[in-house]
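Narrative of activities, Objective 1.

The group set out to show that a structural description can be obtained from nothing but a protein's sequence at a throughput compatible with the screening campaign. Below is one input-output pair from the validation batch, recorded exactly as produced.
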Amino acid sequence: MVFQAQIASVTIEQFREIVMLPENAERLFELINGEMIEKMPGRTSTSQFPLKLASSVIVHCKTQTLPCYVSGADGAYQVGGDVVAPDFAYKPTPMSEEYPDPVAPLWAVEVISPTDKAANIRSKRQIDLDANILLWELYPHLRRVDVYAPGEPPTSFQMGETLNVGDLLPGFTLAVEEIFGE
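Output recorded for this entry:
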């Protein structure tokens, strides 16, 4: 069922009602600029990248005794009037039982595939930028990470370079190879 044709612009309240319908129990939706978009399952080859990242973050937080709450692609967050489900998200506060989680992450990661629509990528990027969320876009086919840090110009990182998240997780660094390597 395509909701975009039925409802021109969906509010957060309408979104919650629709996703809570029994027929949508096993489906994942995002609400981007008033449009409901069903998030389809990804390929196993790309699902590994957020998991590698999450494991590195969790280990770092444990060794540094930092608060650490991470979610994967099934975790939905309300960011302003939108609902996004990044492939990885980090925040220093506990996850909510509420749907979507009302506390936006401080860091989000999206795995970009060649079939993703450029307009959708830009829209989600703008939502994160407007909310001052650190965004990493992973491009596995290029083995590149584009970083959009609040108040900074975008930066691209290639194999052989090292990423960090600044003050979000002091001391955390990650080589691009650790994400895309075998």
